[in-house]
Model the fold of this input.
Amino acid sequence: MDPTKYLEALVKADSKIIDQLYDKELPKVTRFVMQNNGGQQDAEDIFQKALLQLTTRYVAEPFEIKSSFEAYLFTVCKNLWRRELNSKKPRVTNATHLEPVYDPEDLALSAMEQKRWDLFKACFELLSENCKVVLQLFFNKVSYADIVDRLGYNSETVARQRVFKCKAKLTELVKKDRNFKALREL
Amino acid sequence: MTNQDLIEISALLRGELPADEAQSLQNRLDADPELMEIYLLEKQQFEALDESQWPKATTADKDYKKFHKAAQSDAVKNLHQYLETREDTPTKIIPLYQRTYFKWVAAVAVIALVISGILLGGQEDPQTLYAQYLDMDDVPTLTVRSESDSIYGILENQFQNGNYREFLNNLKEYDTLPANASLLLYEGLANNELNNTPKALATFDELIASDLIDAPRGHWFKALALLKSGAVTEAKSVLEYIVSNELYNADKAKELLSDLP
Done:
């Protein structure tokens, strides 16, 4: 099914489509969260937040999903879990004291963050394979000495030059993107 | 703005700039809006592409009002109301690892995500793909409703509750049970969840070699077991076999192949 149809179904709170998503996609998200040290309640919260976030974003400004909806939903869930792990606020997940899933401020922020992540990720994917590898190491704070070792460069100077060029290319791609204008004033 | 500025900004974001130089750069950022804009863009790139971080937005951001209004729209409220009142309870899956103190867990998980991100250059890592593609609906049930108290019911209950060691120990006790594809799948999956890949693969091979109706499912689960163990090349070979012979889950196998590096 066309990904936009799913988004429209969420806007209409179409129970049939939503139930299908729960049946087919929640188990995958549950397994991912559990394998990354979360629990079932975390997975269910994340899944619900993902559906609300997608709806919020689509209402704010209709957008296009270029992969399958299911794959994108899984990515959104993964990112929400990553966001949760990066949050300094500990989650409270016992049955009597659940963190609220519907929080308009947090939903708005997470939708904006996902939009921003989409932009950088899309531009990153346009880079050459070599640039992707170099920058992945660079952004994950691997030392230049290790980058030299892993990628077989002659010296750290060569590695630094390569990083510099790849990063310049990434910045150029980001700036060219039509969605970047909205980010400039963030 | 010079190349040196860009180098210093990168060094600052990687935590490599000495304190005095960091302060000097901070002063220049505060005084130069153009340089600050470049710094913010670089920072956002780091946050988005460093797996241990996340690009945070704030209520002061330009689009916030629009998104906040959307979050309070009837569409979102109605969806939330429906989600809260759904009668369906998702299938219970017992965690493989027990949840412990949040900060410790978060630290370990972030490190794992970082490592997988670094090693695979942005591709989904095999573990993630395994989690994404393993669907317990693909495993036929061992029992019918009237058999819930039978040995099959007990075994199924142990498996579904994640008591894999108990399940395997019990299975040994009942080694005279007739050949059953579901039982072999459960046995393979239980070994796989316990990271006993050789036994898991041997069990799936036994299923594949059998004349049971569900034997072709063994290829799919064998591919997933290989994927979980990190044997990506071997997993791809099995997936290609599934696709070319149009075996069980051929469509999923094709999709999974396209997700693999």
Summary: Chain A has two domains: 1-118, 126-186. Residues 123 and 172 of chain A are 9 Å apart (CA to CA). DSSP finds nine helices and no strands in chain A.
